[in-house]
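Section 5.1 Outputs to date
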Amino acid sequence: MKKKPQKQHPRLTHPLVRDGKGQLRRASWDEALERAAAGFRQASQTYGPDAFAMLSCARATNEMNYVAQKFTRVVMGTNNVDSCNRTCHAPSVAGLSAVFGSGGGTSSYEEVDHTDLIVMWGSNARFAHPIFFQHVLKGIRNGARMYAVDPRRTSTAEWAESWLGLNVGTDIPLAHAVGREIIHAGLVNRAFVERATTGFEEYAQLVEPWTLTAAAKVTGVPAAAIRELAHAYATAERAQLCWTLGITEHHNGTDNVRALINLSLLTGHVGRYGAGVQPLRGQNNVQGGGDMGAIPNKLPGFQDILDPVARVKFEQSWDTVIQPRYGKTLTEMFEAMETRELRAVYCIGENPAQSEADSEQAIRRLAALDHLVVQDIFLTKTAEMADVVLPATAAWAETDGTTTNSERRVQRGRGALVPPGEAREDIDIICAMAERLGHDWKFTDSQTVWNELRSLSPDHFGMTYDRLEEHQGLQWPCPDMEELPSSYLHGRLWETDPVRRGTPAAFGLVQHDPPVDLTDEEYPLRLTTGRRLDSYNTGVQSGSFASPMRRGEYIELCPEDAEAYGVSVGEEVRISSRRGSVTAPVWVDPALRPGLAFMTMHFPDEVDTNQLTIEANCPIAGTAEFKASAIRIEKLVPAWT
């Protein structure tokens, strides 16, 4: 196959501003910061504080995210702050919070090493989360059984005892059938359900129609395989139920998450060592960004903006007034660009021009802004559209601070390299911006920021830099300076004392809702998207490095579909959805089933897959349905004919 050249995104080494001819030119820091601040000031004074929005960065430090959300709420006076958490795992946070009151995964990675059963549901962790998958392999070597639930027979599924290849968008029927079988087989953990949960009777009634036979017809999974999974999960002493974007990137992603959590409540596989539910986060600090309050509905430390006690605490510390209402999610921000309600955006380390569903629409909306400021390490597609571009440092190599991973572990990072050219640390840039807008913040280093966060977030209070270094990271909640935190959450649910047990966990009463973008004669193939091991998201960072595994972007088809369409490996075809068309070479993958195609978002400069995806959003979390688009493919007519 002929490889297309991968676009190189140059490292930003000096500020850029857009000149009178519409071109980005080099500028001094003073000019760039003044231009950036003036645009924010103009938007706020003319249209009000909610005309501004902040996109914070899931790859930057906790400290940066804390300062970014503080800038939004204190300097600009709005709660319009969000990050790419909205693109991927917002349904996980919403679902977990609704059930347990906390949006983090319930277990540590180490517990996967010692569990008895692992269910990987909608997760090709071997490619998308290779570090976590090493723990899965340790668990398997230690005797754990592993089940994979995924439309594709992925690299992860190759290690499974059984692969349940369900139809895209049928996770709820499958989960309900597993739950019904557990109930009918008498495998419910009755003591746990009666003591620690609510809504069981309603849940049992809800899942009753989903017999093994009924579920098999809808999901495409054989009844015997569904029964096997149900019995294996319910009878395991300890089980880990893990999911990623195959569950969350749907128009009903939060409902999908609730359906899986129901299974853990039914069996008591939560709140114990080795037993829990685990959403695997993709970015190195997507968990931490939310923890630090870089989301529109929570202040740092998961404290709700609608809670007046929480607001008063932050208002007194920050000497400000916080709006007593939620801000806009990333999804709502883009809708507000369309209506011109949103006029100015400060985008730090994100590339929404290429990462959002229906990318042509996203670009059109970004172009409608009066003022766009991008702070990044590379000249991304989004940065190319900006009025001001600010060069930042790379969080993983040039910045001091902390990050928080999927197991809620906060870890120290230290700058090891001198940043190139005039690049400055994110926090320094934000504080310089705040100063031009009338706020003189004095953060001498990242530890100063962290200590301010600790003073306001009880769950982080016990995590001093010294303790983080001593213990090589700590998991939240860590409210105590003496005791070490538990590796797992919600052990309270096993307490016999109702007071110590606290709020019970509620079963989620969710219904099956098929994908929005239905297949038909015109668009007969179901396209699902995901990641590959050798590349990273929109390819801005990974695209500059060679990989012997990399073939570039292509559309994967099963052998039967390739034969039916008369296409071969390497042949360029046109792929069209109801939103747009792209061309890409074909790759044949026997891991796919007839009617299912697969692509990634790693090479948008060559093949912009998100021109095909649909902006059908989860009404609770705002995450788009990247995993279920209807497409057709067409052979290209040679130019010489």
